[in-house]
Backbone:
């Protein structure tokens, strides 16, 4: 299932799209049973704006839910600017993973503020565990990534050329990320 709507890249776009064009969030088929009859089933609120505080904040932002008419389970899709199952957005993860590729120490990486060492270590472990699977799928989609050698070389090239958010949006078309 494509859980990521790659065309919506900012929270402002997301809020506008939810009110004006909510159909872009409707999945083509139920991720559980494959039936293509999904009905809008309300929304849930998510705290996604980590940059702005107070009245300028967009929090909470609505995330549309859809219900399958066959199995009666619900599902939702997120804009590219909100990472599935993550507290921090893709840009924060991109920054910290980029730093880890240069110096693989979550403790030193966490000194600059932002996520704590344990969170950064979990992201690093996740990337290492799923790295080969992601690498295979990304190399199939992006032939220029075939020139990179090794884990660090490949992921440095991914972060520098297409970015973590776009890479995860591409991978989301074939597998579950994160």
Residues:
């Amino acid at each position: 299932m494509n859980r990521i709507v790659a065309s919506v890249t900012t929270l402002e776009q997301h809020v506008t799209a939810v009110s004006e064009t909510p159909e872009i969030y409707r999945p083509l088929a139920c991720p559980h049973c494959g039936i293509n009859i999904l009905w809008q089933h309300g929304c849930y609120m998510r705290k996604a704006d980590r940059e702005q505080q107070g009245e300028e904040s967009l929090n909470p932002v609505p995330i549309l839910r859809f219900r399958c008419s066959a199995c009666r389970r619900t599902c939702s899709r997120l804009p590219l600017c909100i990472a599935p199952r993550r507290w921090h957005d893709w840009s924060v993860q991109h920054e910290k993973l980029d730093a880890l590729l240069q110096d693989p120490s979550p403790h030193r990486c966490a000194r600059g503020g932002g996520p704590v060492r344990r969170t950064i270590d979990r992201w690093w472990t996740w990337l290492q565990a799923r790295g080969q699977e992601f690498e295979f799928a990304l190399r199939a989609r992006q032939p220029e990534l075939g020139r990179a050698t090794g884990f660090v070389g490949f992921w440095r090239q991914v972060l520098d050329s297409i970015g973590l958010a776009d890479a995860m949006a591409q991978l989301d078309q074939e597998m579950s990320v994160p």
